[in-house]
Amino acid sequence: MTFVPPRSTPEAAALQGPLARLLRPLVRLCIRSGTTFPALAQLLRELYVNVAEHDFGLPGKEQTDSRVSLLTGIHRKEVSRLRGAGAPVATVPASVSRTSSIVSRWLADPAFSAPDGKPLPLARLAGDAEPSFEALVASVTRDVRPRAVLDEWLDSGLVSLDGEGRVVLAEAAFVPRGDDERKLYYFGRNLHDHVAAAVSNVLAAEPPFLERAVHYDGLSPELARKLEQRARVLALEALQTANREAHAACLTDPGGSARWNFGVYVYREATGADAGEPR
Predict the structure, then answer these.
(1) Helix (H) or strand (E) holding 154
(2) Average confidence (pLDDT) over 131-157
(3) Which one of 6, 168, 177, 184 has the fewest beta carbons within 10 angstroms of its own beta carbon?
(4) Alpha-carbon gap, residue 164 to 147, rounded angstroms
(5) Average pLDDT in the 136-143 region?
(6) 3-state secondary structure of 160
(7) Is 108:247 a contact under the CB 8 Å cutoff?
(8) How far apart are CA 104 and CA 137, in angstroms?
(9) Got the DSSP string for 78-128?
């Protein structure tokens, strides 16, 4: 039996160029982090088998080693060894989930944010009517003491204390540090969702997801930096608006198994003679 790809699927040869450009920055990251080619090749081999096993089954038929081997080009004995691991599960580290939930509420809940969406400085302890960090944490989780969260965030630079002893949300809450587990978690999740949306748009006759970019080439470095800074402002405004509306909608939502992700990105680089090696 031969697998016939959908009519809208691009030919394998046509994917070589886009894939090389897509993978280049990931290969750069792998080399810098010490991930060797054999390690990456083994990961890709496992993923090929896993995706073929779980995403390309035929209705009413058992997925066989032979068919997975046919789909992936991996030897049947190797397929048999790698199968059965189960589909990858996207787990969220507890600290990441807690931090994200608290920061999102701080930015979206009118009790803890200004009308323009900026987070208010918060008193450390709950008072009569003054918004507090203690009340913020308690509104999200009862599993950890607000003081423990505060100490953790002060140590990691997510918050600081102003002259009045109030807790102030720092920029680090938006841009995690390189050694922060949140940074690697969001690296994987956000890139996955962006690529998944783009792949869905390539495969579908009617692109189901919004996935667009504004781009200009041949700019001076000064203008590129100026446009980058302006784009940062616009992007943050869009994210804060989306966060406030989503938070308000969640208050009356019955809940379920669906998830939603809205993201933006900004990028600039030198090109041509100033670029050095290709990026």
Answers:
(1) helix 146-156
(2) 90
(3) 6
(4) 18
(5) 89
(6) strand
(7) yes
(8) 11
(9) HHHHHTTS--------HHHHHHHHHHHHHHH-TTTB-TTSPBPPBBSS--S
Dihedral sign, CA of 84, 189, 113, 130?
positive
Element (H, E) at 167: strand 167-169
Structure tokens at 111: 């009790």
Neighbours of 14 (CB within 10 A): 10
* 62, burial (CB in 10 Å: exposed 0-12, middle 13-18, buried 19+): exposed
Q: Which residues contact 209 (CB under 8 A, 6 or more apart)?
A: 197, 198, 200, 201
58: left (phi over 0), alpha (psi -120 to 50) or beta: beta
| pLDDT tens figures, 71-126 | 999 999 999 988 866 555 556 666 677 888 898 899 889 889 888 778 999 999 88
